[in-house]
Amino acid sequence: MTRRTVTTIVACLALAAASLLGASGAYADWDAEGDGDTVIIEGSQPGSTGSNPGGGTVVSVPQEWTETYRVPACSPNSVSQDAEGNTITYADVLCTAWSACPGDGENRWFVYTRVHPVEGRPTNWAFQGSECRAASQGSEGGPVQITEADVLEAVRETAPRPVVNAEPTPVTYVNVPTNFSTTAAGETRTVTVLGVALQVQFEPTTATWSFGDGSSATGAGIAGAAVGAPGAVEHQYRRAGTRQVSVTQAYTVTVVVPGAPTITLGTPLTTTSDPFALEVGEIQSLVTRVR
Questions:
Q1: Which of 11, 73, 219, 280 has its CA 20 to 30 A from that of 191?
Q2: How many domains does the chain have?
Q3: Does a structural domain hold residue 48?
Q4: What is the 3-state secondary structure (H, E, C) of the chain?
């Protein structure tokens, strides 16, 4: 059991006792250090629940975050820290002057904040004034927690879109092999996810074709390929008309996190090209002379 867990349990017990004694009664040692301090800590350490729990695997991003610390609003309560950044609190154990607030179950608290940088010790605690709130109100702050689902949502509109190439074009013919190809190369783009700028690498994998007549194929194809060439994507239409051709490109997505190992997302990303209107005509023979 962590110290923070113990603090939460003791705080809940103290709040229950306080409701029986009244808002102006004596309050227990909520942080379980035996020093009489009545405190509420807000914020979460990296890797714990942050302001956006999201969904899927968490992408750990080193980032600056703000911690909030509250003590009952009565003199001489205050918050400071030692040379190593450890928090030191000064609190009136009785705190009989703890002022009530208009809201039911609310009391006034002194509010202190400090910033945790990406590296090094946090800044000194800074007094931010006082506020009314319920002692049991949930934690706030902490580093933003980014998940794979958050990244995929943000990069979906940023991923490179494939383009359809057809030969011959803009008209092909019934029963004539039509050559299709698309060009997809690896790219790196900057994507902002929940306010955090990340470098995202897109590496193309499988291309899937829809030829507009119910047929499909896979492969990137080869521009200018001869009929039947290995790796070429070919299709023969059986009827004349206009066909809407599209290609869907799958990408492996890798997130480049500053100061941390790169992360390859477990879920591939797919993007689809704009529809390509291909006219399919017929070649007819005209007999003009019979011998």
A1: 219
A2: 2
A3: yes
A4: CCHHHHHHHHHHHHHHHHHHHCCCCCCCCCCCCCCCCCCEEECCCCCCCCCCCCCCCEECCCCCEEEEEEEECCCCCEEEECCCCCEEEECCCCCCCCCECCCCCEEEEEEEEEEECCCCCCCCCEEEEEEEEECCCCCCCCCCCEEHHHHHHHHCCCCCCCCCEEECCCEEECCCCEEEECCCCCEEEEEEECCEEEEEEEEEEEEEEECCCCCEEECCCCCCCCCCCCCCEEECCCCCEEEEEEEEEEEEEEEECCCCCCEECCCCEEEECCCEEEEEECCCCCCCCCC
pTM reported for the whole predicted model: 0.56
Residue 29's Cβ-count burial label (10 Å; 0-12, 13-18, 19+) is: middle
Q: Which two tokens stand for residue 51?
A: 């302001």
Max intra-chain CA distance, the chain? 121
Domain-located, residue 112: yes
Q: What is the pLDDT of residues 244-278, one digit of tens each?
A: 999 999 999 998 876 667 888 887 899 999 999 99
Rg from Cα positions in the chain: 32
Q: Any idea what the CATH number is for the domain that residue 230 is in?
A: 2.60.40.10
And the tokens for 188? 């790196």
User: Which range of residues forms the domain containing residue 184?
Assistant: 147-281
Q: Is residue 226 part of a domain?
A: yes
Same domain, 190 and 129: no
From its phi and psi, is residue 43 left (phi > 0), alpha (psi between -120 and 50) or beta?
left
Two tokens, residue 203: 């590496």
